[in-house]
Amino acid sequence: MMNSEILVAKLFWKAAFKNKGVFLLTFFIGLLMVYAAYSGRKNFKTQNEIRAKYQSEARKDWVDNPNKHPHRMAHYGHFAFRPKAPLSVFDFGMESFLGNTIFLEAHKQNTVNFSEASFSTGMLRFGEISIAMILQVLLPLLIFFLGFGAIATERQNGTLKMLLIQGLKWRTLILGKSMGIIAVIMTLFIPIVLTTIFLCTGFQDMNTSTDELLRLFFIIVFYFIYLVIFCVIAVLISAISKTSKTSLVSLIGIWLMFIIIIPRISQALGASIYSIPSKAKFESAIGEAIAKVGDSHNPDDPHYKALKDSLLAVYNVDSVKQLPFNYSGYQMKEGEKISTNIYNQHYSQLLDIYYKQNVFSRVISFLNPFMAVKNLSMALSSTDFSSFLNFQKQAENYRYDLAQEMNNLQIKHISNEAKGSSDKNHILDKKHWEEVEEFKYKPTSISLVFKSEWMSFAAFLFWIGLLVFLIHKFSKTLKAI
Amino acid sequence: MTHLAFYNLIRSNSVKIGLLFLFLTGVISLFIGKQFIQKQKQNIADTAIYQEEHITQNVKFHKDDMGLLLYYLKFSLVNEVPAISGLSIGQRDVNSSIKSVTIRGLEGQKHDTDLNNPYNSLLGSLDFSFVLIFLFPLLIIAFTYNIISEEKESGTWSMVAVQSKSLFKHILKLFLIRIALILAVLLLILFLAIPILGIPINVDFWAIIATSVSYLLVWSGICFWVVSLQRSSNFSAVVLLAVWILLIIILPAAANNYLVNKYPVPEALETTLKQRKGYHEKWDMPKEATMDKFFAHYPQYKKYPVPKDKFSWLWYYGMQQMSDDESLESSKTMKEKIKLREKVSQAISLVIPTMHAQLTFNQIAQSDLNNHILFLDHLDKYHEELRLYFYPKIFENYPVKNENWKEFKPKYASITHTVNWTNSILPLILITVIISLISFFNLRRI
Description:
The complex is a heterodimer of chains A (481) and B (446).
Chain A: H1 2-18, H2 20-63, H3 70-76, E1 78-81, E2 101-105, E3 108-109, H4 131-147, H5 152-157, H6 159-165, H7 170-201, H8 210-240, H9 244-273, H10 279-293, H11 302-315, H12 327-363, H13 369-380, H14 385-413, H15 431-435, H16 447-452, H17 454-477
Antiparallel strand pairs in A: 1-2, 2-3
Helix pairs in contact in A: 1-7, 2-4, 2-7, 3-14, 4-7, 4-8, 4-9, 7-8, 7-17, 8-9, 8-13, 8-17, 9-12, 10-12, 12-14, 13-17
Chain B: H1 2-11, H2 13-61, H3 66-72, E1 75-78, E2 98-101, H4 107-110, H5 118-123, H6 128-144, H7 147-154, H8 157-163, H9 167-198, H10 203-228, H11 233-262, H12 266-280, H13 287-297, H14 313-349, H15 353-364, H16 369-395, E3 411-412, H17 421-444
Parallel strand pairs in B: 1-3
Antiparallel strand pairs in B: 1-2
Helix pairs in contact in B: 1-9, 2-6, 2-9, 6-9, 6-10, 6-11, 6-15, 9-10, 10-15, 10-17, 11-14, 12-14, 13-14, 14-16, 15-17
């Protein structure tokens, strides 16, 4: 039974390569692919070299500090530069809109600065050329160009009636033509896959982790499904169109809707319903919340007064100077804990708003396979917002630990006689600076992708089910004329 | 005959739907622009309120110490968002229009970002410039790609050929009716923008209209050229869509990749490291290392004594000053690099009409990168003014209560901009003329 499908597919394949236009388009997309691979690779290399260079320079600056008061070191702080993930060569994702430099200091959560977009002249609005973009945007269009006439042309020429009279089943025709388009597209997809594997693993000196291989595997599988979805859509639309022109125009319309129009509309909808607070409001709310619990910078703060009184009572002394440890360090440790907790609460509320803004663009994957693959591909390539948040979290944890480590050093080693952190008589040996571990970003595991992208996976399942159902239904109801 | 052709056209359902779709997205884009402007205005209003609260509270806490107070106090500079920005949001969503800074080292605060959901930027805003640049050409294509081929394919071409005195004039007429209809929708949307966004009718507005019309003329030229080839409907549709993708997606994106790879900005990271070191290392150096440089920069403060054996604000702000002074070089190189990027993309855009339209729109709407660089220049100046104003007060420990703190409201940067008509329109007109000439030549032969 499968033989007749393969025959239909073979005939389609032969006809497709006789078409000069198809050949030209395929060649052009191939060329573009080479450029995408080259430029993705180059950007990855340049950016990671730059970031690694300054990361080690920042570390060197830190370690080179002379003996000093630990609180001066807490303010000296450190930098975290976000490294690009190896798979960012394949899919740039949100990379260009995400900052890459964060200054980590005591008392303060800084913003991640210097995104590519902040240096952009406005061209970034048109998008970027990456291998993923070619697969997501251009291949579906090529599929539509290949497939718009698959059945409509046969109908227009009258050959469709003959085929059906000869006993060919609709189901065979639809499956066979779809397989034919898939076969033609594989001439591009397979080289693209091989290049991607080579780019993302070959250059890492064969150190690719299982996690990365798994990511690559999923990328290949889901892009394959994505392309198959478009092949089937092309054949189905072609099957219901009276003429090849109607089929072409409808398919172009679908492509424009999926790729250009729906994504912007869904995001605009989310962004207009849920509003992000102004930075002034956000920061003032944090300041207010801290003032309520305990502001270590307010000399009359009740929280710290109570803290001091209880310490004095426990140690049975009448001034903080008589305490067996450095009181000011103790106070700052408490302050850091309070302010960090409050900041994290507010920040997670802000992320909640972002999440709500994005909900429409995620749900729309069930109507638009482009969004499903876009979200999933970014996540698998670690160029999505979750991966970025993971970096930000690691940097923030590092900042907190650094600040508290300096506070602990102060509590333990600095005398209560010291007159603030500029007092040159009470300083700490520089050997402690080296004891602080360097910031090292740990890439996220693929399990995060399953958690954050379950909706994209579900959307793919939905699409597969939908198309199987439509093939089944159309096979029964379609007419030859 | 013209009337007939016109009525024939607008009777068609697909034409009505096409026009309606374009008009509606156009109007939606205006409301998205309006919402953006209102959000910016809200941010500015919030900034004013919270700045006042913030100053009042800190003045209360640190009433005896001007130096300590100024350590905390933040002052905001606002890059006002003109109504016309609503038409082309440009870089305004990425680059903050409000900067709040203390008088400490500026480099460490200058590039702090606003609260941004990167997903919004990734999918791009649905502003008027998007509707114009992306969607209008599609409608021009849809309306014109089969002007000749449709009649040929339905078998009416020979009748038209017999009945018309001049085939060329007939085709041109059909073509112009369609373009006129689309231009009418464009003008309708733009004139609706006046009340919806509250755009003043001034030179900027006329420049937007002129650029929009010129941009659509380019696309009309391209469509006319493909029509003049007199190939089948399917062929014309595929070629025109391919041109659209090339101009809208591939060429600008390729240019962007090129620019990003050709001009990376490591200077940004360099500057940020240098400014940290410039300040912090001074804590471990003899005071002269700071004060000699500081007094060389500001000789007027030499008269203030620097206490040798204890902390003083003069020394502290001197150290802070060093973070800016010692990162000045790399900060300048960074700015040069960004300006170079701007220059190169301007040059590339001369031959890519889509890019040219976007960059021109952003310029006129004051949402371009250059506007942001100018804003940062104003921030430099404002920060310096604040320093010069407060430095002597700190060094003399001027009583906090004697200062009129109510006066410190967010300040507006006045960034001047002019419309460069030649740059805005000439490249688009030139491209239109060239393509039209080729098409006329093609059609003369029918």
